[in-house]
């Protein structure tokens, strides 16, 4: 998709506004540290719920909640194998977006260290459970 026809003074129009709203809802799935950790782990391949709980350090209920959101959002899928449930990325797109987000964040913190420190300090005050780290 290209961003054509956008100017500073032109109204967006209902079709573009609707698409931007849908895009914002989808992008919000990437706006949580635990969901990013889960997606990061799934880039390497299928993982059981137990693997994801251990790898993220989250509780079973918290990880299950995040898995439900990612599944409903269409980013991951689940399959049952006996008593275990395994999750995987639903296609390569989520991995590509995650790679872009992590790359952008690392570049941004290098290029704008003062702004990044300020944003990260404000974020830490709001939610100390969501550190900004790349693994």
Description:
The protein has 135 residues and is mainly α. It has a single domain (14-126), classed as Winged helix-like DNA-binding domain superfamily/Winged helix DNA-binding domain (Arc Repressor Mutant, subunit A, Orthogonal Bundle). It has helices spanning 14-27, 33-43, 49-56, 60-72, 93-111, 113-126, and strands at 47-48, 76-81, 84-89. A hairpin with a 2-residue loop joins strand 2 and strand 3 (84-89). It starts with 13 loop residues before the first helix and ends in a 9-residue tail after the last helix. Mean pLDDT is 85; it is low at 127-135.
Helix content: 55-70%
Spatial sequence of strands, sheet with the most strands: 1-3-2
Helical stretch count? 6
CATH topology: Arc Repressor Mutant, subunit A
From the alpha-carbon coordinates, what is the Rg to the nearest angstrom?
Answer: 17 Å
Structural class comes to mainly alpha
What integer is the average pLDDT? 85
Q: Can you tell me the overall shape?
A: globular
Could you tell me the number of beta strands?
A: 3
Order of helices and strands: HHEHHEEHH
CATH architecture: Orthogonal Bundle
Could you give a short account of the major beta sheet?
Answer: 3 strands, antiparallel
Integer tally of domains? 1
CATH superfamily: Winged helix-like DNA-binding domain superfamily/Winged helix DNA-binding domain
* Percent of residues in beta strands: 5-15%
Low-confidence stretches: 127-135
Instruction: Give the N-to-C terminal Cα separation.
Output: 30 Å
CATH secondary-structure class: Mainly Alpha
């Amino acid at each position: 998709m290209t961003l054509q026809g956008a100017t500073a003074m032109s109204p967006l129009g209902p079709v573009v506004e609707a698409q931007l709203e849908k895009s914002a809802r989808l992008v919000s799935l990437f706006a949580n540290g635990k969901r990013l950790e889960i997606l990061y782990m799934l880039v390497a391949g299928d993982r059981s719920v137990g693997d994801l709980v251990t790898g993220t350090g989250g509780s079973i209920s918290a990880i299950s909640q995040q898995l439900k959101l990612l599944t409903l959002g269409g980013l991951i899928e689940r399959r049952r194998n006996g008593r275990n449930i395994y999750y995987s990325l639903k296609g390569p797109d989520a991995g590509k977006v995650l790679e872009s987000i992590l790359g952008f964040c690392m570049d941004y913190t290098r290029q704008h260290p003062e702004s990044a420190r300020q944003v990260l300090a404000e974020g830490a005050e709001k939610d100390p459970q969501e550190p900004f780290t790349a693994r």
